[in-house]
Each structure stands twice: as C-alpha cells, then as structure tokens.
Amino acid sequence: QVHLQESGPGLVKPSETLSLTCTVSGGSIGGDYWSWIRQSPGKGLEWVGYFYYGGSVLYNPSLESRVTISKGRSENQLSLRLDSVTAADTAVYYCARSTNNYEHFHAWGQGILVTVSS
Amino acid sequence: DIVLTQSPDSLAVSLGERATFTCKASQSILYSVDNKNYLAWYLQKPGQPPALLIYRASSRQSGVPDRISASGSETHFTLTINNVQAEDVALYFCQQYYDTPYTFGQGTRLEIK
Questions:
Q1: What pairing do the DSSP bridges indicate for beta strands B108-112 and B10-13?
Q2: Residue B104 and residue A47: Cβ atoms within 8 Å?
Q3: B102 vs A: CB within 8 A
Q4: Residue of A nearest to B48 (CA)
Q5: CA B17 to CA B112: how far, in whole Å?
Q6: Are B41 and B92 within 8 A, CB to CB?
Q7: Quick check: B55 contacting A, CB < 8 Å?
Q8: I need a surface site. Which of A61, B13, B42, B78 has the fewest CB within 10 A?
C-alpha cells in the first residue's frame, strides 16, 4: 500500500519561502497525479496544485503567482514551494494522490502544520 | 470556481439513527461524455487527514460499510449514514473534480446526541 509522508519546517517567517517535501513509499510515483492540498481554520480545504510525472503541472489560480510544485531531490519525492508567505498561508499541508486528473483523492499523507510567524 | 455549499454546518443524531448531509454545487458537475457526476465525499477525524468515502457521487470506496450511501446529480448531492455509530463522529466534506481548481465544501460536523 502506498504511503505518503510530508516533511519540512513547521515555522516560516513572513515574506520568506515555504518548502515542503512529500515522500512516497510502497509504490511508484510515476503514472499518477500528485496534489498538494492545504487546510486552515479560516479557508477550509484548498487545492494548491498537482504534478504529473508525465510532465504536466497545474496550479490553483489563487496561488499560481507564488507556487511551484516539482519533482523532489529523490526519485519518489514531490516538492512544494510557496514564495512570499503571509500569516494567511498558515495551514496543514497535505500531499494527496489521484489516478488521473479530474479524479478524487484516494490517498492522503498525514499532513504537516506550517505556521507563518516572525 | 465551482462553489460547494454543505448543509447543515453541524448535525447531532442519536446512536442508531440516520444522518443526512447535503452538498450543493454552484453549477452542474455532471460530465456529459460519461454521464458521471464528478463529486467525492470524505470524512475527517480529529488529527487525521481526510479519508475517501464516496467517488463519482455514489460509488463506495473499498472498505466503506454499506450503511453509508450517497446519491444526487448535477448540482444537488446527498450523503446518508444509516445506523449511526460512535465511530462516525467526524467532519464530512464534499469535493468536486469536474473542473479546476478542484474545490471542497466547508464541511458538516456529525456529533452524537
């Protein structure tokens, strides 16, 4: 069974860059779509964007100017980068898997809380 | 963006009773090519990520008990839990994947009376 695990700093200063990694174990990262989704008390669940190892990426227009989703440093890793963060970016960040775009998310990581504060 | 509005915000039922949740979409999420509604339901327990219950509006995910069912089409969807158990206490979300950006409802909290 595929397992997803998010990692990265839990505290980021305002105006700096949030960087997270999703490590996939128990299966191949190729062939599926990998999304980042965040959850905050104020905005609920918000899809950030997806990455497909076949070569496509799509972002939520509300974040597109600040977000980059790409391959991680290791073969079975996915990364998220969010620039110029503010307190509004404080959230639990999840990576999630779907078998195709325009599909439900059938597997989620445990999530990582990222707080933006000085 | 497609807006999903869930009701009620919270629901309290007695053990063994039925719980019904509603999700309304701001536009149809029925895909005409395959006649499927691109809607999923998830539950989320405290400290845990969302877990898939239902996809394509009415298909139960493997392992989900058959006392949980869902229906609906186009803009109006329902999730029903029969014989509510203590383990069903959670936050329930709907999500559309008909169009990007994918969006979620604000959630309905299920409690036991």
A1: parallel
A2: yes
A3: yes
A4: A110
A5: 10
A6: yes
A7: yes
A8: A61
Write the pLDDT tens digit of every residue in B27-76.
Answer: 999 999 999 999 999 999 999 999 999 999 999 999 999 999 999 999 99
Query: Does A61 contact B at CB distance below 8 Å?
Result: yes
CA distance B17 to A68: 46
**Quick one: pLDDT at residue A7?**
98
Quickly list H helices, chain B.
Answer: none
Across the interface, do B98 and A58 touch by the CB < 8 Å criterion? no
Virtual torsion, Cα B97, A107, B58, A53, nearest 10 deg: 40
Residues whose CB falls within 8 Å of the CB of residue B99, separated by 6 or more in sequence, listed in order: B2, B29
Q: Helix, strand or coil for residue A73?
A: coil
